[in-house]
Each structure stands twice: as structure tokens, then as C-alpha cells.
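Example S7 (C-alpha cells).
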């Protein structure tokens, strides 16, 4: 079972990276730079991905971890609202690939990340320079 997990996780991360790239390229028709995101404003994953071209520079996001790929130092985030609505990490239409070089959170953890979109090995990814587990009262 462990042998299957790594190729599946890699395939999931690769598919998410491609999807993120498509969302980014399709959104180029919108005016770039309309909104300069402040790291203090926390965005949901769906809002960020649907309007990625509007958020240049460092942004803060909040989402639920849907996949972890330790060998690539990456996680996948889905919108916390969608997760709350369906209660599962597989029901989201948009998944954000996140490169994180620190301790990786667990699947289903609600996390806050701060970073920016960057090209990594020819693909667009959200590169986080801060990641914290979020606790709700």
C-alpha cells in the first residue's frame, strides 16, 4: 500500500499544478494588478485561484490540506468553505499546489500560508514562506 501512495500523490500534485497553470493562463484576460493584496488580508483558496492575476506579490491564504507529498516538499490546499460544506478533501473543484520547505501538516489540517506565486521548474506554484496550523474556537 505504501508503494502506491507515492505515485498517486505525485500524480495528484502534478495534476493540481497543471490545473493551477490553466487557471492562471485563462485569467490573463482580466486586468492584471487591479488589486494589490496585502499579507494582512487572508484569502480563501477558491477566491485566490479564480483571481490569481489580481494578487501579485505576497499574499496570505487559508485552506484545508487535501494532499501531502513529502518527497516534493509540497502540499495541496482546498477552500475551507468547500471542505466544511462536504466534509471531504476530494470534493473541491480547485486545488492549489503549495511548495513548503518546513514541517508538513497533515491531510485535513486547516492552515494559513503566506507566500507568492512563482515559477518552479517551469510550472506555476504557490511558494509559501510561512505556514501555520489554524485553530478555530
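Recovered sequence:
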Amino acid at each position: 500500500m505504501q508503494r502506491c501512495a507515492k505515485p498517486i500523490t505525485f500524480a495528484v500534485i502534478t495534476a493540481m499544478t497543471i490545473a493551477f497553470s490553466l487557471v492562471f493562463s485563462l485569467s490573463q484576460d482580466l486586468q492584471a494588478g487591479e488589486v494589490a493584496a496585502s499579507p494582512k488580508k487572508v484569502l480563501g483558496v477558491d477566491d485566490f485561484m479564480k483571481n490569481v492575476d489580481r494578487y501579485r506579490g505576497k499574499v496570505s491564504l487559508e485552506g484545508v490540506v487535501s494532499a501531502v507529498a513529502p518527497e516534493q516538499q509540497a502540499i495541496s490546499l482546498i477552500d475551507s468553505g468547500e471542505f466544511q460544506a462536504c466534509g471531504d478533501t476530494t470534493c473541491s473543484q480547485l486545488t492549489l499546489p503549495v511548495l513548503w520547505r518546513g514541517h508538513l501538516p497533515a491531510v485535513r489540517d486547516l492552515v494559513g500560508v503566506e507566500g507568492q506565486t512563482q515559477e518552479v521548474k517551469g510550472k506555476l506554484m504557490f511558494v509559501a514562506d510561512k505556514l501555520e496550523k489554524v485553530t478555530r474556537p
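Notes on this example. The first helix runs from residue 2 to 26.
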